[in-house]
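User: tokens in, sequence out, please.
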């Protein structure tokens, strides 16, 4: 551009200022949520408490608590405390780490509790299912035979304790035939409340 006051002088147009602008990155959902104004929180007055009234009698819809111990519950208790069956009884522990006589699997069926008595004899404990009948003795003899063949030494005794809640019908003759090695016991669950001085 020519300066009219000085014909030989030229003036240049002003140089624009260079500003480095950052490229705009689209906002993420979380950033957009951060930039939103927060809603105001109104404080509310606490609700009035109801005035206490006399306690009413328990409603008839509430039922009396019951203790239902299944055969698995009974077995769990006996695994923890085998001395409840007889003093000196202990759960068998195998040579392999972690092997236990609790719910011991054999090729002829499961032994609920395989234990050793004070004289190191074998004791097979079965908790009979409700309604288990004559086949109970046959299954038991199979398990006793398996322990005698695979686990016991020549002189070791193998015997069984069968726990029932009710005596199965027609079992008395079969039980009489094996009474020298098998003992049947009825189990009962009780609750005792004792007064204590505090």
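Assistant: Sequence out:
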């Amino acid at each position: 551009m020519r300066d009219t006051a000085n014909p030989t002088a030229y003036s240049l147009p002003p140089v624009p200022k260079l500003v480095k602008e950052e490229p705009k990155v689209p906002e993420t959902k979380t950033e957009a949520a951060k930039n939103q104004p927060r809603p105001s929180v109104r404080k509310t007055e606490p609700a009035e408490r109801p005035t206490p009234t006399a306690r009413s009698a328990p409603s008839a819809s509430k039922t009396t608590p019951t203790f239902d111990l299944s055969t698995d519950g009974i077995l769990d208790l006996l695994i923890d405390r085998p001395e409840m069956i007889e003093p000196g009884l202990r759960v068998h522990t195998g040579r392999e780490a972690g092997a236990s006589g609790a719910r011991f699997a054999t090729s002829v069926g499961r032994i609920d509790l395989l234990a050793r008595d004070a004289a190191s004899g074998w004791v097979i404990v079965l908790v009979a299912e409700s309604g288990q009948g004559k086949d109970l003795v046959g299954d038991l003899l199979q398990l006793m035979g398996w322990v005698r063949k695979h686990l016991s030494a020549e002189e070791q005794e193998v015997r069984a304790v069968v726990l029932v809640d009710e005596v199965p019908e027609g079992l008395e003759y079969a039980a009489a035939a094996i009474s020298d090695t098998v003992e049947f016991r009825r189990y009962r669950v009780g609750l005792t409340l004792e007064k204590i001085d505090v």
